[in-house]
Write the structure tokens for this entry.
Amino acid sequence: MHEMGIVYHVADEVERVAAENGIHHVRRVTLQIGQVTGVLFDYMADLWTWVADKSDVLRGSVLGYEEIHAVTRCEDCGQLYDTVPQGRQCPYCGSWRTFLVQGNEYIIKEIETDDDDFSEEDEKDAPLPSEQASGSRQPAEKGYREWRK
Ligand SMILES: [Zn+2]
């Protein structure tokens, strides 16, 4: 089950980051999810509630998401275009030699904590790696996160 795998992976990763940074409780986790990953976010949010309830750090936290727009590049003419309306054929030159640049990945974008003692300086020390959905062909993108109290 694709969604379940992602939820477990994200929960593990957030717990690891929380432990490394001395965070006692996470309030909200925001994912960026590619437009063509095919995951059902509402289902993931339900699974998250169930998984988070088993963890002291994550219990009661909310999973939110933002969509990563899917973009394809044509190898013949070099143009970028929207993947979803066009599919795999380049709308500029008709080539089928195209590849997905972004839109099949998921990234933990943001972890919000309700710990009062979390200092802003910690955030530069531990960059979070990006999370690649399985079957993804594009190169890894730099992970990005920010902390908010
Ligand atoms: Zn083209």
User: Anything to note?
Assistant: The first strand starts at residue 26 and ends at 34. The pocket of zinc ion is lined by residues 74, 76-77, 79, 90, 92-93, 95 (CB under 6 Å). The chain has a mean pLDDT of 84. Helices lie at 2-20, 41-52, 83-86.
